[in-house]
Each structure stands twice: as structure tokens, then as C-alpha cells.
Amino acid sequence: MLLKARFKSLSSFHPPARSWTRTAIRSLTIDSLSPAVRNVQFAVRGELAIKAEEYRVMLKEKGRESNLPFDRVITSNIGNPQQKGLDQPPITFNRQVAALMEWPQLMQLAPSAFPQDIITRAKELHEEIGSVGAYSHSQGVPLIRQNVAEFIQERDGHPSSPDNIFLTGGASAGVSLLISMLISEPHKSGILIPIPQYPLYTATLAQFSGVAIPYHLDEAHEWSTSIDEIKAALNKAKEDGIDPKAIVIVNPGNPTGALLKENMQREVTNLCAEHKLVLLADEVYQNNLHRAAEFPFTSFKKVVCDMGSPVPLVSFHSVSKGVTGECGRRGGYFECHNIPDDVRAMMYKMVSVGLCPPLQGQIGVDCLVRPPKEGDESYALWKEETTRINKALAERTKLMAERLNSLPGLSCVDSPGALYLYPKITLPEKALAAARAAGKEPDTLYVLSLLDATGICAVPGSGFGQKEGEYHYRLTCLCPGVEEYVGKLEKFHREFCAKYQ
How many Cβ atoms from other residues are within 10 Å of residue 212's Cβ? Predict the structure, then answer.
């Protein structure tokens, strides 16, 4: 009874309420965050993309009652081939292997639905991996790394070791890892990046308090790389007290689509040796070649090995681009060459913190580097699908470049690779004044107006970097219905220029 009374007494006890005030706890505000985080900018998913999403939601919820001058948003701001509205179909081979790895019982439940080479591949991978719901080796599944090494060796004619392969959650994860490791002294360690550049590089450098050392590509010569320009950038960085640690080469280029010729790759390699730079080769668009006979792809691994150069090289590849377009699976890899064992051990330590890359992304990498071979049951369909996608990309790129080049005040290099065009726009003085009044970069005003008028979401050149007084925008060549798409671009450009004449 006494115990019961005590519990009753305790149950009726309520501690006095604490009066919280704003000064009692530290507030979470923008100013309380890391300055490095506040400095990160990523134009591809920035102001334009946010506004485009707002329009997409308005159209979904209100339809014609939204009173917008377009009936759909066209996402031309990012290389995301399978995004709704672009609808590049996935490669059947890749998806069938993924399906059997996701649910191996399908091999028994629907054996006639899958070609035999698909079943054989899935069984091999399942024997190595087990469930895709389990962690793998932090560096990636050993069998898949072996297959990546064999792909590289066959492509380049030089040995590759699975010990030098790191599978990653998309190429971006590898880029971020390398940049984080190379910034040994915040605000002093620098990395050379091409201008225009994919904003991943400036964003990641800002995140890790590194310094971007820009070198400009030559638009007048099809966005070619200039050794003199790189040397000038190096000299200026050193004069400013910056320690150059590495150089980024994007080949084929983003946003330009330009490909380096082998003689230029050799010059870059020699420059890296002279200045003790790590060479970071972003080669994720190596399978997007629109005029391969005229502009072939040669990897930096092949060039460095052919030269017998000791230059430290890290090369990146991804399942997000090419004809695969599996952006959401987050699969990629990088290969280390001429990297000391103790440095590679540090890389392994850092990737171990994240436990492992996504398993379905790793399986996507296996399909990328080990597609069906001639004679396999899946080969004919794989060949037909990949040829069709490559052909469509090349035709769209050519048609878009021709039509854009016919417009007054607009010029565009006919991109030989990647997924984009990067037109240069000459804007009327009144448009420049309107941009200044609105507090916007002129090309940002242009692409915001394009979005408002047509629903086409592009990215201003100011997000990629450009010379003072020049203006560009980037758009993808992924949109179906290219005649209608280009027609909207043409109509808008003429109306915009007329408005500000």
C-alpha cells in the first residue's frame, strides 16, 4: 500500500515548465554555418533550376489555369538523359542485369524473359556480391574492379591493376575525394581548372577552402586548350602566393564538347611533370563522340604510358553519361596511375569512412565496361540501342548548332563531343542596362527570360566562367522533338533582341 501511494504521489508530480528564450540556446542561422559552405555555388542546380521547378509544380497543379505561356518545362540545364520529359530509354542489357541482381528469384520465376548471357552475368555477379543490400568492399567489388582494369587495358594497350581502381558513387564523388586530399593548406593550395568549367570543380574547391586557378579555353579555335594560357595562369597563381597542386582536364569538355588532340595531351603531360602537378582527367564523356573519325578520344592514361611519364594521374569515368545515362544509380570509378602506395592507402582510408559506393551503381559500372560481345544473345539489341542513341545525339547537336549559328548576335561551336552546346550571345546595350538594373548578370537575365517565355531551362555562362564582357549559355542536346525545341529558341532570341534594341 505504501509503495502504491508513493507511485501515485510521483505520478502527480510535474516539474515546472522551463521558460525558453532565444538567448537560452544558440541559434542556427546562415551566419553560424561554415564560411566554406556559404561560398559554394552550383549554377546547374541554381536559380534557374529552382524557378523551373516552381513552374513545373504550377503546371501540374493548375494546368492551363496557371496562365503560363507554355504547357511544359523543358529541362535543358543538366545532362540527365533519362529525366522525365527527355526520356532517353535505358539500355535493356543494363536494366535486365540490374533486375536479376535486385531479385535473383526472377531467374527461376521468369527464365524465358531473360537472355542466357544476362542470366550468366547475374549469376556471376551474385556469386561474388551476394545481396545488393549488403555493404561491399569500400574500394568496390573486387570482381568489378578487375573488369574495369581489363576494360582500361584493352582500351589503352597498357596494364591496369584492380588495386588502382576505386569505384565511386558517380564520378563526382571521386573528384570531391581527390580535391579534398589535395588541399593541404586552406586558401593557399590551388587547382588549375578550365574556363568555361563544370561548376562541380569551383563548388568543391570552395567547400574545401581551395583556390581555383582559371585557365581559359580558346573559343576562336573550337575551345582548344592552350599551353601558353596554362603557363600564364600558373605564373599568376605563384605571384599571388598560391601553390598549384593539380590541373583538371575535362575531355571531352563540359560545357564545350571539345576534344584534346594527342599532341596537346603530350604537352599538358610535360607541363605537369615540369611543375609537379597531379593530372586530374575527367573523361566521363568519352563515349559521346559525334564525329569520332575527325575527333577521336584518347585517354590520358594511354598518353602518359606511351610517354613513359612519371606524372601522377587520376582518371574519372561514370555510368551517368555516354549512351548509358544512368545518372540516378550513382556509379563511377577512378583509376590511379603513378600514385605512391602510401597516398593510395590514404584514399582507401577516406573512402572507408563512407563504407562503400552504391551496389547498383557498381553493377552499372560492370555493365558499362563489360557490355555484350558479338555472338552473345543480348548483343544485337544492345548494338541497336546504343547506335540509335549515339546517332540521335549527333544529329540533334548538328542541327541545333546550324540553326543557332544562323541567328543574329549568336555564335556556336559545333560540339564534337559530350551532351551540350555553349552558344555565345551578343546582347544589345539596353539588355545590359536592364541586367544591371535588376542586379543580374546579362546572360542570367537572358536565360531567365528564356525560361519565362518558353519553359526552357538553360544555364547562364556566368555559372561556368567566361571572359569579361562575354556572355554564353549552356543547353543540352538531349531534348526530343528537336525541331520544336530549336524553334522556340529561335523565336525567343529574335523577340528578346527586338525588345532591347
Answer: 20
Q: What pTM did the predictor assign? A: 0.88
Cell of 392: 540521335
Cα→Cα distances 253→249, 259, 282, Å:
8, 7, 9
Q: What value does the mean pLDDT of the chain take?
A: 88
Residue found by looking up cell 581502381 in the block: 165
Least confident of 1-5, 16-20, 107-111, 442-446: 1-5
DSSP codes, 281-306: EE-TTTT-BSSTTTS----HHHHHHH
**CA angle, residues 380, 382, 387, in degrees to nearest 5:** 95
Give the helix/strand (H/E) hosting 142. helix 142-156
Please say if the pLDDT value at position 6 is more than 60. Answer: no
Q: Do the Cβ atoms of 412 and 472 come closer than 8 Å?
A: no
Element (H, E) at 484: helix 482-499
- For strand 332-337 and strand 313-318, is the pairing parallel, antiparallel, or unpaired? antiparallel
pLDDT, tens digit, for every residue of 417-471?
888 899 999 998 999 999 899 888 899 999 999 999 999 989 888 888 888 889 9
Which are the contacts of 313, defined by CB distance < 8 A and separation ≥ 6? 278, 279, 281, 300, 301, 304, 336, 337, 338, 339
Q: How far, in Å, CA of 411 to CA of 426, rounded?
A: 9
- Closest to 275 (Cα-Cα) out of 232, 316, 305, 306: 232
Decide: 275 and 233 in contact? Cβ < 8 Å.
Answer: no
Question: What is the SS3 assignment for 410?
Answer: strand
Alpha helices by DSSP H, listed for 24-91, are 35-38, 47-62
User: Closest Cα partner for 80 from 359, 328, 286, 424?
Assistant: 328
Instruction: State pLDDT tens for residues 74-86.
Output: 888 887 887 877 7
In the Cβ-directed half-sphere of 241, how many Cα atoms lie within 13 Å?
4
